[in-house]
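Structure, all two chains, one model.
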Amino acid sequence: DAMVIQNPRYQVTQFGKPVTLSCSQTLNHNVMYWYQQKSSQAPKLLFHYYDKDFNNEADTPDNFQSRRPNTSFCFLDIRSPGLGDAAMYLCATREERLGATRGNYNEQFFGPGTRLTVL
Amino acid sequence: GDSVTQMEGPVTLSEEAFLTINCTYTATGYPSLFWYVQYPGEGLQLLLKATKADDKGSNKGFEATYRKETTSFHLEKGSVQVSDSAVYFCALRSTSGTYKYIFGTGTRLKVLA
């Protein structure tokens, strides 16, 4: 089945030790998103890629970086994790084509998330 | 800017009770509206959606109608089950030319047997 896959599902890192979370998709969608979700809160958009174009949210800390080497993969790099970065990180994809008719194309598909613990 | 407001939870119901989770939004134009469900330890799954005024989204017994006049998209289900226990998020996709989705804070539903 076509899907959004996140690895690992659970990640433990130490304070200040760089960590990378990965997301892959078999949907061939051109838009990929990274969200941070803390307990009992709404997902917070960190950044997204439209094709190869990177779009950072204004309030996303510099500590968070992203790479998208190809359509299928997207990585979230946290350069120096702090205790406040412990959260669930959600990857999502969507197909967006200019001029496309409205319909399923604007639905986001989410991965299962990676729960990050910072010790 | 665009925003979504959901009723606070948790909402606790007995099995087979009627469910309503209120959602209102603020946006320019005609955003697309969504309900997502999140089960413990999992990502978000699309439950239903509506893309224009008066559209009704429905899935798995859940319904929501896009009400432009009241800027609302309330989620309803006639008879909830224990398996419906989850967190429900209302969301909109802005028409402002970006690709952002705005999520509400989520409403936790607990259904008791």
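The interface with chain A takes residues 32, 34, 36, 41-46, 49, 51, 89, 93, 98-101, 103-106, 108 of chain B (CB under 8 Å).
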